[in-house]
Amino acid sequence: DTGPAARVETVPVQLQQLPDTYEAVGTVRAKTSATVAAKVMAAVRAVAVRAGDPVTAGQVLAELDDRDLRAEFDRAQADFNRFKTLLDKEAATRAEFEAVQARYRVAEAALSYATLTAPLAGVVTAKLCEPGDMAAPGRPLFVIEPTDAYRLEAQVPDRLAGAVAVGQSWPVTVDATGETCAGTVAEIIPAADPASRSVTVKIDLACRQPLKSGLFGRAAVPVGQRAALLVPARAVRERGQLTYVFVAQNGRAQMRLIKTGKNHGDRVEVLAGLQPGEQVIVAGDVADGQPVSQ
Asked: Which of 45, 165, 202, 271 could form a disulfide with 259 if both were Cys (CB 3.0 to 4.6 A apart)?
């Protein structure tokens, strides 16, 4: 006998069906991005931003050397003014004037290209130029991403791809913030990667914490149901590295070492150490082997 009987409250171990999930890992990306490139060939004269800087739409990112462009514009403007006067005096034809006017407009547009501006509000994620570099048409100089719309690009095994559909809700955990965000499947890339045997699924995120591209995320992909043993979380006790519960058996408290899984609200999944129907003690101060009454 280890003492007087202790009054306890017990709850039976329950075998319940739980949603089964597959953890698909991926990377957080901005839903859209803008690559800013030069439209004319000229040396970079000044750079006004750095990687990581927030920018507003229309904000100046860099200035190109515009001396050649301005000289061409000044010539075109002078020709335009001269031919306009000649046209008024009927000393030039309409066709001649329109040709000169077209050259003037081209020169005017080329001069405006010497100032590179942000096409949208966001953050500079890449700065690919320095003062003195030669900018050329099509060469990327900046990458800008908006900060209000992100998605997780996750890899899902091709064996599960048939169960994935646009519009499904998948919770997504972002490790860097610790937040579990609401996720909605927005796009499924149909072609599987032959190396990993997986398809890419793009999941729109709704998070309270600020995000940025490159963060690691984990999506819980629903794959059906599974049976699991659940006990109230208040029944689970810990001592050092040991996790255990007390079971009321034959009128006594019996300490039972267990292995736990995931939490499900106020219940804990038990992976080993208990059987369905056993009575776990959820209230009462007991010791191993102590008589108990309910």
From this structure: 271
Residues 138 and 153 both lie in one domain: no
Query: Is residue 279 within 8 Å of 293, Cβ to Cβ?
Result: no
Cα separation of 38 and 270, whole Å? 61
Structure tokens at 189: 């890339």
With bands split at pLDDT 50, 70 and 90, how would you rate the model's confidence at 43?
A: very high
Looking up residue 249, the CATH number of its domain turns out to be 2.40.420.20
How much of the chain is in helix, strand and coil states, percent to nearest 5?
Answer: 15, 50, 35
For 40, other C-beta atoms within 10 Å of its C-beta total: 17
Burial category of 1 from C-beta neighbours within 10 Å (exposed 0-12, middle 13-18, buried 19 and up): exposed
How high is the pLDDT of residue 2?
A: 53
Residue 109, SS3?
Answer: helix
**pLDDT score, position 249:** 82
Angle at CA 31, nearest 5°, toward 25 and 34? Answer: 130
Read off the tokens for 103: 């050259």
**With pLDDT > 90 as the criterion, what percentage of the chain qualifies?**
34
Which range marks the domain in which residue 67 is found?
A: 38-145
Hey, is 130 helix, strand or coil? coil
d(CA 283, CA 32): 54
Higher-confidence residue of 16 and 201: namely 201
